[in-house]
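Recall that a protein's primary structure is simply its ordered list of amino acids. Everything else, from secondary elements to tertiary packing, is in principle encoded there. The following example makes that idea concrete.
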Amino acid sequence: MTIFSYKASDASGAVIKGTLEATDEKEVAAKLQNMHYIPIRIQATGAGQGKFNLGGSINLSYLFQRITSKDVMLFTQDLYALLEAGLPVDKALSILINVAEKAKFREVVYGILKNVEGGNSLSEALTKYPAIFPKLYINMVRAGETGGVLPAVLERLGEFLESSQDLKEYITSAMVYPLFLVFVGGISIIIMLAFVVPKFAVIFSDMGQAMPGSTQVLLAISHGLRAYWWAIFGGIAATVFGIQKYINTPKGRMAADRLKVSAPVTGNLVRSVEVARFSRTLGTLIHSGVPILQALMLVREIITNRLIAESLDAVYHRVKEGENLSGPLLQAGIFPPLAVSMIAVGEETGHLDQMLLRVADNYEKTVRNLIKRFVNLLEPAMILAMGLIVGFIVISMLLAVFSMNDVPF
């Protein structure tokens, strides 16, 4: 048996929090329903997250009250749970105001509620907050309202946001240790060059003896770092600023995206990420009832790589002329042949949406494997690089010490 924490709503709309002991989330939901409560979130305490809640991990952005994609995901899943229980949209939104943990997001939900109470549909109310709810989200909600299947669409939308969030968090967490290693190693090397080596330099200069070449190079680097640190860091900052400014231009963005795709190490990873995002989004949109042409235009907007996004223009026009999706995708060079073959099978069997979601699952697994392999190679490479730099410093100093004592080699 496991202890689960929960958030639920009673008949009056009040939010109730507590804990229950059960074997799984379904049993907790059943117990809450027997108590005449509507389950909103259920989570195993001190363990993994259940179906009804994905907010158990600590989010540092909470400290700054910034509304994130995770907040939108939780809102979507909570709204689905309430609508599935039979509550009207306005009643569900009034409950979610109390469920939201961030004051800013509570204000957003309150604004959505007021728009709905004013006679607008949920999708129209969401358009008032384009910075929080993208076009993809709004169009899926609108499709659910039009088809009378809003709870089902919200369920699929919640699953889509969950999958995207999991992939994003996996990539972020995988890069934490390598970045930390670079930071600590860099600081250590700077301290050695700026404070440790100069102490030995004073001793060497007092001896008045010729030093080995490697020691002279090390001392020159140390002197340059101490004397011109402002120029070095200023140059680095100016270079980063210039590159960033160039990338923000259309030409620079295209050049950077082309480099990302063609890079020998990261190119395959970037393509796999975009293929997974494309497949997941397009499959979810089609499954939610959004027409394929409109779905393709929406997918183009969420593709971060401009080179791949622009190649979708040709795909869109050819599909608009009556062609299947698989042929233009293969010629555009976006998808690998295997993925295109799977999409072609989906078109032939009439299950394009399901096949796209399967392609997304496969490539998300590929992304995880590539990241794991990349990190496994990156960590020893960085440790080796740091070791070589530190080893050069130590050996250079030892050679100078031994030369002062006339120790032959």
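Residues 150-207 form the longest helix (58 residues). DSSP finds 16 helices and three strands in the chain.
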